[in-house]
Amino acid sequence: MYYAKRIMHRAAPLVFLVPMLASGAEQLPQRWSFPTHITPILTFAGCNQSSCHGSPVGKNGFKLSLYGSEPEKDYEVLVTAFPGKRVDTKNPGASLMLRKPTMQVPHGGGPRFKQDSRHFQVLKGWIEAGAPFGAADAPSLDRLEVTPGYRVLVRKGESVRLKVVAIFSDGSREDVTALSLFSSNDDSVLKASPDGVATAQGATGDAAIMVRYAGKFAAPVFGATTFSPGRAAAAPPMHPVDREIQAKLRQLNMASSPLCTDEEFIRRVNLDLLGTLPSAGDVRGFVASADPAKRAHLVDAVLERPEYADIQALLWADRLRSDSRFHRVGGVRSYYRWLREEFATNRPLDKFARTLLTPTGPSFTNGAANYWGNYDKISTPIETAIQTGQVMMGVRIGCAQCHNHPFEKWSQNDFFSLAAVFSQVVEFHTKNAQEFDLRIDATKAVINPATKKAAEPRYLGEGRIESAPGEDRRVAFAAWLTKPANPFFARTMANIVWRNMMGRGIVHPVDDFRDTNPATHPELLKLITRELVSHGFDQKHLIRFIASSRAYQTSSASNETNRLDFKYYARAYPRRMMAEVYMDAVAQVTGMPDTFKDWQEAKRAIQLPDNRYPSFFLDVFERSNRLVICDREENVTVSQALHFVNGPEVQQKISSPDSRLHRWLDSGLTDSQVLDEMFLAALARKPSAREKDRLLTRLSKGDRKESLEDTLWAILNSKEFVFNH
User: Fold this and answer.
1) Residues 61-93: pLDDT tens digits?
2) Class of the 141-224 domain?
3) pLDDT digit string, tens, across residues 111-155
4) SS3 of 636, please?
5) Among 3, 4, 11, 16, which residue's Cα sits nearest to residue 135?
6) What percentage of the chain exceeds 70 in pLDDT?
7) CA distance 275 to 584
8) How far, in Å, CA of 437 to CA of 321, rounded?
9) For position 525, what pLDDT does the model report?
10) Using CB atoms within 10 A of its CB, is residue 12 exposed (0-12), middle (13-18) or buried (19+)?
11) What is the Cα–Cα distance from 667 to 699, expressed in whole angstroms?
12) Burial state string for 560-572 with b = 16 or more CB within 10 A and e = fewer than 16
């Protein structure tokens, strides 16, 4: 059977008779398009991957664009550059494009598909049709539609078959399931087969199935559970956050843990919001209070303490890579002072961001100017675009610097248009050779390597930035970015606040927003974003809002259904203390503060402006190296375990005659009272009756001082102390 079709081969419209397969479901395309019909086959077969012909240098003299990002160039290489070799329209069966992947002739990449496959038939039909690129007015691929919608698979081995339909700009539709690529973002929950079948693997949770076809992506989400219905809380919670959390738990038949105790709550709030432990007196007073609103009052109180600004400055110094290797000591001091003041005054996050994005002046006096600094010089527009994308927009756009993003919508043009926003910034040196002075030079531009022309400054994913000659276009960009309706900034800031409090971002990592990395709770992300925006980007308000939820106040103790949960907030997730927080906690419990040579302004480790301060303790517990923008590691390592056992810092602080333990001993407290003080100071709770009975028995049989030192040492090395839970 044949059908007539009019196509555009290069510039000349031609009419071809194209053979049609017998099965109606397997018909060849009615209108050929190299980008939408041939490129997906090359991608499906792996031909244009980095390990094959998509590598920067190609393979065996044959180079394709990575993942088919530049179909025009690929067409040139396959069809035009060597007529009759890779594609032979006069004798289609002789085309190397058909013979090599089916191993009719030797192929270094091995067999890619069979002669009776759909892929072979499409390639063959296209070559027989004259191997057209496609008509200039041919409809473009608009999006992918994947069915069915969300559902939860209720037993291991249960499957769901996906159907992928390409929807074109003219409204036409085409089933492209057979040419789509499928992968799961969590193989422990769902595993995706090459033909689009997602199968439950036995773990409970959601998984996104990434579907790729012709440069378009979709990421439908499906759930799987091994638990029977009725596990989640029966009564709908009242807090808006909890409504979203519980809705997901009910879908997965998971039950949340009970509320944490008052002792757990005060310790958690102090570590999360202050980076410090509560005092024994604060714990006693909080636990004894009968005020039903005491948890909300506690959050209000700690947010007004100076330590709040200390821990926020540390977190943002990590994120902004404040480091003396980049900014020198003068820049680091200036940067830290500015950051701390911003959070001490509770500056709204939109104003905070605008100041970072638009500074001028010397870096040692204008702290925000250090956002642009790098190794005694300002960052290049390319470096600034990458940093701004991650820090302010939650987008990892850096890979589009060299080629169109393989798993996102960002193109190389998008990247250089963003870099062009920052091209006007230049440096002048002050009298201090290590300091730079930011100024604006309107003549500066960024060259797009693809076009060899100056890149046009554009808002990411939107239109051109209109600015008067000589005007600093960073100002317009910062105003656009921080608008309440902007799709990037507000949700990124809300997600960061959520991650800092809950241990995991709703989108995780927090700088990796993309369609193929969907939010675990999309409506919850919208909720906290609205809450932040509607209250003027007030971070403290959002903290209060989250802290008042049951989700934040849930116990870390697990039940049968949530012991393996690390992203649905069915329980609190224990997190190892940050290195600086742990160092300060040991000093606080022992009453032996640290001193920091050359940084007299730092009274605690979390107040250190520079992460280069020499400390083996901080290195072992993995303080941020600030070389890249990323979350801190929370690993528990062999080095840490050895340092627990043999490290001198903890033991010296415990055994010092000036330590708090020895002051307790000299004060006349009984052994029982000393144990109470010890547990309250370190763990924010008194020892249980069983713990106290065992410890008192041990104390009665040995040297009192040595036994109590050993007890405190054991507490400071316990998981309960080291983890914020």
Assistant:
1) 888 888 887 888 889 989 988 888 899 999 999
2) mainly beta
3) 998 998 888 999 999 999 999 998 777 788 899 999 999 999 999
4) coil
5) 11
6) 94
7) 9
8) 19
9) 98
10) exposed
11) 18
12) ebbeebebbbbbb
Structure tokens at 395: 């987008």
In degrees to the nearest 10, what's the CA dihedral of 471, 474, 480, 486?
Answer: 170
Question: Can you give the three-state secondary structure of 280-324, one letter per residue?
Answer: HHHHHHHHHCCCCCHHHHHHHHHHCCHHHHHHHHHHHHHHCCCCH
Rg (CA), the chain: 31
5: enclosing H helix or E strand: strand 2-9
Using CA atoms, how far apart are residues 254 and 257, in angstroms rounded to an integer? Answer: 10
Q: Could you give the CA distance from residue 221 to residue 243 in angstroms, rounded to a whole number?
A: 20
Is the separation of the CB atoms in 620 and 311 below 8 Å? no
Dump strand ranges (E) for 569-643: 575-576
- SS3 for 645-713 is HHCHHHHHHHHCCCCHHHHHHHCCCCHHHHHHHHHHHHHCCCCCHHHHHHHHHHHCCCCHHHHHHHHHH
**Could you write out the DSSP letters of every residue in 82-126?**
STTTS--SSSGGG-HHHHTTTTSS--TT---S-TTSHHHHHHHHH
Looking only at the bridges linking them, the beta strands covering 361-362 and 221-224 are unpaired
Token code pair at residue 95: 């085309």
Token code pair at residue 437: 């002075």
Give the per-residue pLDDT at 6.
32
Where, residue-wise, is CATH 2.60.40.10 in the chain?
141-224
CB 211 within 8 A of CB 218: yes
pLDDT band at 297 (very low <50, low <70, confident <90, very high): very high
- Read off the amino acid at residue 110: G
Determine the Cα–Cα distance for residues 112 and 101; give it in Å rounded to an integer.
5
Token pair in block for residue 144 = 């992918």
* pTM of the entire predicted model: 0.89
Q: Give the span between the Cα atoms of 345 and 698, in whole angstroms.
A: 50
